[in-house]
Amino acid sequence: MSEPVTFPSTFLWGAATSAYQIEGAVREDGRTPSIWDTFSHTPGKTAGGETGDIAVDHYHRYRDDVALMAELGLSAYRFSVSWPRVQPTGRGPAVQRGLDFYRRLVDELLARGIKPALTLYHWDLPQDLEDAGGWPERDTAYRFAEYAQIVGEALGDRVEQWMTLNEPWCSAFLGYGSGVHAPGRTDPAASLKAAHHLNLAHGLGTSALRAAMPARNTIAVSLNSSTIRTVSDDPADVAAKQRIDDLANGIFHGPMLHGAYPETLFEATSSVTDWSYVLDGDLETINQPLDALGLNYYTPALVSAAEAAPKGPRADGHGASAYSPWPAADDVMFHQTPGDRTEMGWTIDPTGLHELIMRYAREAPGLPLYVTENGAAYDDKPDPEGRVHDPERIAYLHGHLSAVRRAIADGADVRGYYLWSLLDNFEWSYGYGKRFGAVYVDYSTLARTPKSSALWYGQAARSGALPDVTTEEN
Ligand code: PNW
């Protein structure tokens, strides 16, 4: 038997979800459509035309879901607030019934000793704000700050861990560039403008939260910062990597952590945008002191230079679209990283997570880090006894948690890990076909069954050490 992989006793063992992916109840208690309601109800946008109308009905089953988390032994839960439940038009006074749902959810978590971690924006922009221009419009950032203030005032007394945005890269570049996410626009200039206004929203939102909440609360952001590798160290390939690194990482952490966009980003995108919407003072506004940084990690990217990348669906794992999510990067080629893959086609590579954590430990010294999402989709099915065995997911979790442990040993201040996801759920444009849950959901009855990975992870959470993969009965 190998040495047990043990974690600090304060390490948080969490699971993550987001509002639109699990809540359902899209027309209840004053909620109005978000861009994801509109998008998923537009023919051809999601697999099988699936929507989050019912999702896994968490809005009505949250008590059972929290009980399940407690039974498994989780110490933290990351969820998001649905903006259109709180401010149906994205402006004006709050709907108390909407806020009350999150008060009840948080109180239930606290009663069971589970730490809530709240994300303000996990992609469900009120449709009215999209109709007014969406994220390419500067006003959306001010609207977000107002929403942040409302939620901060309502829940700041009971939630200590806050995140402004989840994966602004997806909002900007899948939403306004490749169009595989809501609102489904395909305009490279708009996607860069959206990125800046998301940054601005983060900065304004952070200030609004600070003013609205007790000082003990912590504020962070969750970035899907990628580990990017090249096929060779040929200068052209290294330049290709720099370009994608700027568009994936530097465009967000540059302003957020260092108060500046990478110079190389301005140069590389000058054919698409003149960045004139970056106004005096914006970078100071965005560069707010943070208490922690959330990293979401699934798979690394592998790139090279090319004369012109082939048109059509690309091997970058970002869904099939004829439009690239990478503005002004038509001469960068994405390759499939070698190795086993999950059901998403994403290569399993825990070393990429170690590299990512060490990079941010270096670039943001002193800033506590959390892995706010990590997990895998598999084609899980119950056996005749109704049990769901998912040894591949256990292996994935074991590999990635071991990488986190190595990063801690190497000096990184990683305080917790949130498995994506607690439950099988609405996987955006892929619909319900991709199961990321540690808990299986039967979509005809909505019954929940913990998979063997949930039991394995619960045991890790309770003991603070990873159970052996080979000796586990799974
Ligand atoms: C993240 N990509 O989404 C989200 O935060 C979750 O809501 C989602 O369910 C999870 O990861 C699994 O997909 C991503 O194309 C969606 O690179 C797309 C990409 C990355 C993350």
Question: Can you characterise this structure?
Answer:
- The chain is of the alpha/beta class.
- It has a single domain, classed as Alpha-Beta Barrel (TIM Barrel), CATH 3.20.20.
- Helix content is 38%, strand content 14%.
- It has 15 helices and 15 strands.
- The chain has helices at 19-22, 35-40, 58-72, 83-86, 96-111, 127-131, 139-155, 168-174, 188-212, 235-258, 263-268, 282-286, 350-363, 391-409, 452-463; strands at residues 5-6, 12-16, 76-80, 115-121, 161-166, 218-223, 228-230, 293-296, 301-305, 332-335, 369-374, 414-420, 439-441, 448-450, 465-466.
- The strands form 4 sheets. An 8-stranded parallel beta barrel has the order 2-3-4-5-6-8-11-12, surrounded by 6 helices. Strands 7-9-10 form a 3-stranded mixed beta sheet, covered by helices on one side. Strands 1-15 form a two-stranded antiparallel ribbon.
- The longest helix has 25 residues, at 188-212.
- It holds the Pfam family Glyco_hydro_1.
- Substrate binds at residues 21, 122, 166, 298, 420, 427-428.
- The active site is at residues 167, 373.
Key descriptive features of the protein:
single chain; 474 residues; alpha/beta; TIM Barrel; eight-stranded parallel β-barrel; three-stranded mixed sheet; globular; binds 4-nitrophenyl beta-D-glucopyranoside
Q: Tell me the series of helices and strands, N- to C-terminal.
A: EEHHHEHHEHHEHHEEHHHEEEHEHEEEHE
Give the overall pLDDT as a whole number: 96
The CATH class turns out to be Alpha Beta
Total E-strand runs: 15
Largest sheet: 8 strands, parallel, barrel
Ligands in the structure? 4-nitrophenyl beta-D-glucopyranoside
Radius of gyration computed on alpha carbons: 21 Å
- Judging from the principal axes of the Cα atoms, what is the shape? globular
Terminal-residue CA separation: 17 Å
Strand content: 5-15%
CATH topology: TIM Barrel
- The CATH homologous superfamily is called Glycosidases
Q: So, CATH architecture?
A: Alpha-Beta Barrel
GO cellular component, one term: cytosol
GO biological process, one term: cellulose catabolic process
Family: Belongs to the glycosyl hydrolase 1 family.
Pfam families: Glyco_hydro_1
